[in-house]
Structure formats: structure tokens, C-alpha cells
Amino acid sequence: LLKHIKSFGYLKTKNYLNLIRFLNSKPFQVYIVGHSLGISDRTMLRKVFMHTNCISVKLFYYLKEDGQNDFENKLFDISY
To answer: ∠ CA(4), CA(40), CA(48), 5° rounding?
Structure first.
């Protein structure tokens, strides 16, 4: 069962290590464009958002033709 959890897959490549190196290297901003911010990425995203070098998170959202948007849902997803 655990082999299907995404966060365990991070250890199979150097990508996660490269991400950690980047996070530690200098201050950065996060731009979120077209990402669902789902539960499967929460481990990685939490590490990024809570890092001391993260100076801001800019959230771009979808605006529907009827004027509704998903900003609040995305905001809740990154704020837990």
C-alpha cells in the first residue's frame, strides 16, 4: 500500500534533493499557476511554503465566464 504514496517516490530520483538544495540556496518567491494543490503534493508543497527562504506565494486562479473563480478553494488548500 505504501508504495503508491507519492512522497515515498520522491526518494527514487535526485529531484527532491535538488529541490532542497534550491530552497536552501537563497530567498525565493513561489508562483502557483495551473496547479490543483491537491493532497498528493502536500508534503512537498508544505516544505516549500514553510521554508524560511520563501518570501511570498503568488496564487493565480481560474476566472470562469460567469465571474466565479477558484481563488478561495486554492487559498484554503495552501493555508492548512
So the answer is: 125
Residue 3 CA neighbour count, 13 Å, CB half: 0
pLDDT digits (tens, 9 = 90+) for 29-58: 999 998 778 777 788 888 999 999 999 999
Rounded to two decimals, what is the model's pTM? 0.74
pLDDT tier, 7 (very low <50, low <70, confident <90, very high otherwise) = low
From the number of C-beta atoms within 10 Å of its C-beta (0-12, 13-18, 19+), residue 76 rates as exposed
Which residues, at least 6 apart from 26, have a Cβ–Cβ distance to it below 8 Å?
53
